[in-house]
Amino acid sequence: MNLLSCLRGSACSCVCVTASVEDRPPAGLCAQPREKTGQRPVPPGVKVGQPVASAATPTVVLEHVSKRFGQKQAVADLSLRLQPGEVFAFLGPNGAGKTTTLKITTGLLRSDTGEVRVCGYSMRGDGRRAKQYIAYVPDQPFLYDKLTGREFIYFARDMYAVPRGPADRRLEQLSERLDMGGFLDQLTESYSHGMKQKVALAAAMIHEPRLLIVDEPIIGLDPRTIRVVKEMFREIAGRGGTVFLCTHTLDIVETLADRIGIIHQGRLIALGTLQELRAHAQRTSRGPAAGRPEAANLCVGAGVGGGPSDGRLEDIFLQLTEGAVAPPGTTAECQP
Amino acid sequence: MAAKPASLAALPHSPSPPGGSLWVLARSRALQLHNTFDQQLREAPWRTLSVLALLALIWASLYFLLDEVLRHVRGWGLVGVVSYQHLFVHFFLVLAVMLAFSNAILTFGSLYGREEAGFLLASPAHARDVVFVKWLEGLFLSSWSFMLLGIPLMLAVAHNAEVRWYYYPLFLAHFFGFVAIPACLGLLVAWAVAMWAPRRPVSLAVGGAILLLLIAIYWLSSLSQHALESDQWLHVVLRQIGAVNQPLLPSTWSAKGIDAAMHQQVGTSLFYLLVVLGNALGLSWLTVNLLGRWWAEAYSRAQHGRLNLAIRFGWFTRLLTWSLFFYLPRRLRELMLKDMRGFARDARQWSQMVIMFGLLVIYALNLTRLPFDLDSPFTKGLISFLNLTTVSLILATFTSRFIYPLLSLESHQLWLLELLPIRRSTLLLVKFLFALTVTGVSGCAVMALAVYVLALPPAWARFDVLICLGVCVGLSGLSIGLGARFPVLGQRNPARIAAGFGGTFNLVASMAFVALELTGVALLMVREFDPTFALPSTLSLAGWAMLAGLLTLSAAVAATALWAGARHFERLEY
């Protein structure tokens, strides 16, 4: 493995390493990542999202990742790159493979095929180094029952070797922002789900991760805290970090995500910005009904704003995963 | 959208935490232990002291029992001299088997199953450090109960032999050195199951336990093939003792080391101690490094086993429930069905019940092989009383471990039950009937088999079965009632629920109830015996009256416990 430090003032901020010859950036720092030859062509109408921070090595690289559990193909030939400075939302129906993908990215599960790299480190060969840069908050946060919230966050601090002074200041900030002062010194066994979620998020943020992976982060949180959490995600992205977000709350995705990936039955069926997905959904809805004038008024967006650019993510999601489903109040032409 | 991202002002990361993740994990464990003790002493000091006092009582009882056994063994003269070593060999062998088994189960859950394993695996903690800490935890948890036996044994041996001061540290050193070896074996078994058989860990554990049980049964049955006073019996015993006294087994090394310490042969004892420690350290180093290297892979493979297979019909449990509880309204039978399925689909629950009662069935079937004159009415009466005692004690253990936690386990979904059009006290009644049916069917079936094999007179056969049923009523009522009076809310682990104050109190109350019932039975039998201490063919009127009194006592205990539990449960806010 060739270790290459890629740090250039304020223009390119990520500390990157390269794992293979193919990914080594050309001369000149922070060059554009090249498409490998022989890669599967991306479906028409869907293009790989441009990195938010241009010319940066991806934070996460999933290449042809597959995972099977017995007879069930949980993830099938999934390829994905997440860039520094972006909030990436992962959507899909229940059982589509979202959590499996997240767990493969964090190293909890080994993929059957393909490669996973985080900040250039292979999860299979050098997982421990990669995990230095990751924070993972599952949908059911784990806390030690017999530790207080503060002690649990200190545990995370020590595990990630964060110096005490800055970590303590950071904890105070997080405690104030997430309103944890009232329960931080109680044993976590007495916490509600929302309290556990706050402490888990604080423990994840204490070491300022390069990659924050969260599964359903706002369940059980009050509206004020949800606002704070969204701000925190944007701050991470603003500092050049990456947020890999898995959620069913589409409002959050619409307001927060720079790019969206939709997985269905283990396969990535759509990838791009919200605008790109809208366009793709419109093209997809036209496809089977090509030549039918009565299908010109697309279901996506109808009754909501009248035009394709106003299509809600819910409609797009349903159309892409289940076929066209008419939103309430739509005209007869939109009935499937 | 963010502009060009500023340089990540990340706090500097070192390749590993200062002092390593081992120190961080160890400190976290120590802190959790401190918080647990602090919480117990602050919130329930009397409960904590009661539990400690009961543990001390059990410890003292074991010491006196062992002391008594060893005193008799010493009286056997030359045989007694030889038998100490054989005693230690068997002790350490049984210890090794049970420790390896329990450690395998504990390690599988903590390294490959629980949420904490996933949390630690996603962190930059060194895998080897995590495995080492988990190994230590498993060692501590699984050897804790054996410390209850090891130290009384050490003191009992010292009391019956002329030992010097160095016997004590050598015994402890041998003990602690030895337990590391089966702990490592347990770790390796857990790893092997995670790697190559992740889909059926519980079935494997149950299968392993049943296999051990069959080996124990074969061993016991071969002993009982011949008459006690015959030469063949002595040869069988010596052959079986010789089979476990292998020079390459760690149990033999520790047994010889302790035996040498007893007989003031310090050099020999130290030699065997070094052999045990060398092997223990070497195996531990190998195990921790091997499992650390393969932890991520094994964890990933173990997740395959968490996929549940589809259960399409569940007809068997429905048929069983409808047959057993035909007398209940349909709504209550549906509640029973929920509990029946929960019981049947948790192998950890029914497997222990199968093992407990399976042992009793095998014992009952082999009653005629016992080296006693079973034609003697006195012997029959004595054995029937001992059978009743054994079944009652096993029922008390079973109800404390499995029936007591039933109500506490409902606390997570109490909101669901609250929405049903039934009263909370009805829920208690349903649990009681469920417990009574499970214990009654199994307990009375075993008693019926035993009285049939013993060929007891019909009156006494009915007596034994009725008393067994009364014990089931009392124990079920106690466990459900006290489970409602002292619930452990929000806890999903039945073992932890049973190990708390309420569970311990329930166990003591159950034992006291059993003791009371059996005292009544003993008094009745003594009263009914004829002058030759023979069991009569029928009970007298007074005897039937005493039986009615004992059954009334059972009903009264059950009713009182259920009433107290229902009163508390009705007012419970959760």
Sheet with most strands of chain A:
6 strands, mixed
Oligomer: heterodimer
Coarse shape of chain B: globular
Name given to the CATH architecture of the largest domain in chain A: 3-Layer(aba) Sandwich
Helical residue percent of chain A?
Answer: 25-40%
Q: Which chains make the largest contact? A: A-B, 62 and 48 residues
Question: Major sheet of chain B: size, sense and barrel closure?
Answer: none
Low-confidence stretches of chain A: 1-55, 288-309, 324-336
Q: What is the number of helical segments of chain A per DSSP (H or I, 4+ residues)?
A: 9
CATH class of the largest domain in chain A: Alpha Beta
Q: What is the CATH topology assignment of the largest domain in chain A?
A: Rossmann fold
Structural class of chain A, by secondary structure, is alpha/beta
Whole-number total of structural domains of chain B: 2
SSE series of chain A: EEEHEEHEHHHEHEHEEHH
Q: Give the terminus-to-terminus CA distance of chain B.
A: 46 Å
Which geometry of chain A do the CA atoms define? globular
Total of helices of chain B:
21
Helicity level of chain B: over 70%
**Strands side by side in the biggest sheet of chain A:** 6-7-8-3-9-10
- In terms of structural class, how would the helical and strand content of chain B be classed? mainly alpha
